[in-house]
Amino acid sequence: MYCTEIFGTELHLETVDGIFSPNGPDAGTLAMLGEVEVRPDDRVLDLGCGCGIVGIYCAKKVGAENVVMCDISPAAADIAQKNAEENGVGGIKVYCGDGPSALGGETFTLILSNPPYHTDFSVAKSFIEDGFKRLEVGGRMVMVTKRLDWYKNKLAAVFGGVRIAERGGYFVFTAEKRGPHRHKKEKRAGGLSRKLARKIKRPD
Hints:
By secondary structure, the protein is an alpha/beta fold. The chain has helices at about 25-35, 55-60, 75-85, 120-135, 150-160, 180-200, and strands spanning about 1-5, 10-15, 45, 65-70, 95, 110-115, 135-145, 165, 170-175.
């Protein structure tokens, strides 16, 4: 058991060997939480929750009923549930499963993830593609890694754009799910601009 304070929120956490960041919050998690805005009406998914640091932190801001945590490891899911109870947010739903596909029909406005970026990209690919489907329009996916190009390209391809911030050697990616009407407006605006450009050039 260790005690830590993250941006003014005190957490008491138990960890065991084999679960990510057993000695305290890692620098990547802190970088991500330092960049994300957790809004009072957010419904949050902590994807790959480990011992539950991110989900519990968010539950302190939006309420346990508005947070879901998920991890493929049964040991991680079990200890995340215990830590939620220890920190007074035992109402968090904790799932043991392989990414967002394990969550039934639930949807979210904010998905946070510190994916295992030292392996191949198959896990991150699943997180991004399945996470996109779980987000409501206007919802955001925030990820942190030490790798730039693959995540930048993949998130931009799926979401249509991505914002990137660098903190302490980590890249924090924020991508928003846009509604179809926004894409149509953007295309229409682009088409109009091209027509205007042709009209301007025509007298020459």
